[in-house]
């Protein structure tokens, strides 16, 4: 079992979120499929996508021995499916390697000519989502600043039963700032616009 110190240490390592595109006919793909051939290796691989971990933590999650984990970790690392993301220390002061996925997602393609275009498309998608996410954080930050200044005047407060008629603008402002997170709303709207643009482009 993983030690309390190992479990409670603050983790800073993260998995690589860049896509990996593999052609079906490549030798590299054979290595990947061989490494994922057993149920245990696939279970281990899935749990690392959920959360990076040390061999002892992985053994706890997959209900197997640490020795068995080391065997499958070695195979997955040789196939470049996982990689060390950071190092932590056990209660005895021993270094423990934390493993995580080497890439996310992994895409198999059958047409060699499609690989460069697909890889570029995947990279564009990841970059686009990152930019939208950053913009959403900025929108959320700005909205919270605006809400702090407007909240003191009661603009964003819901109307009481004794209050007079409430304008549609005030109701909308209260809904956006108090019910729906502005950053999340902005992110969803951007995804909707991009999805509609993609559909129109295909047509």
Q: Could you characterize what this model shows?
A:
By secondary structure, the chain is mainly alpha-helical. It has 2 domains: 4-109, Winged helix-like DNA-binding domain superfamily/Winged helix DNA-binding domain (Arc Repressor Mutant, subunit A, Orthogonal Bundle), CATH 1.10.10.10; 114-202, no CATH class. The chain has 8 helices and 4 strands, in the order αβααααβββααα. The chain has helices spanning 4-8, 27-35, 39-50, 55-62, 66-78, 114-151, 168-179, 182-202, and strands at residues 20-23, 82-89, 95-101, 106-109. The strands form 2 sheets. Strands 1-4 form a two-stranded parallel sheet. Strands 2-3 form a two-stranded antiparallel ribbon. Helix 3 (39-50) packs across helix 5 and helix 4 (55-62) crosses helix 5. The longest helix is centred in the middle third of the chain and has 38 residues, at 114-151. The N and C termini lie far apart (55 Å).
């Amino acid at each position: 079992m993983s030690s309390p110190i190992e479990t409670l240490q603050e983790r800073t390592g993260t998995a690589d979120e860049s896509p990996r595109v593999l052609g079906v006919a490549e030798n590299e793909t054979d290595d990947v499929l061989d490494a994922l051939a057993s149920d245990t290796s696939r279970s281990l691989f899935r749990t690392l996508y959920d959360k990076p971990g040390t061999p002892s933590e992985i053994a706890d999650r997959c209900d197997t021995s640490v020795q068995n984990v080391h065997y499958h970790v070695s195979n997955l690392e040789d196939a470049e499916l996982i990689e060390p993301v950071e190092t932590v220390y056990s209660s005895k002061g021993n270094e423990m390697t934390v493993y995580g996925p080497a890439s996310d997602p992994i895409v198999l393609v059958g047409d060699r000519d499609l690989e460069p275009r697909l890889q570029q498309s995947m990279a564009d998608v990841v970059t686009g989502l990152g930019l939208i996410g950053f913009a959403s954080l900025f929108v959320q930050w700005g909205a919270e600043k605006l809400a702090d200044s407007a909240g003191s005047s009661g603009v964003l407060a819901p109307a009481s039963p004794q209050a007079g008629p409430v304008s549609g603008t005030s109701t909308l402002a209260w809904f956006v700032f108090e019910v729906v997170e502005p950053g999340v709303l902005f992110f969803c709207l951007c995804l909707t616009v991009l999805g509609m643009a993609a559909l129109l482009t295909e047509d």
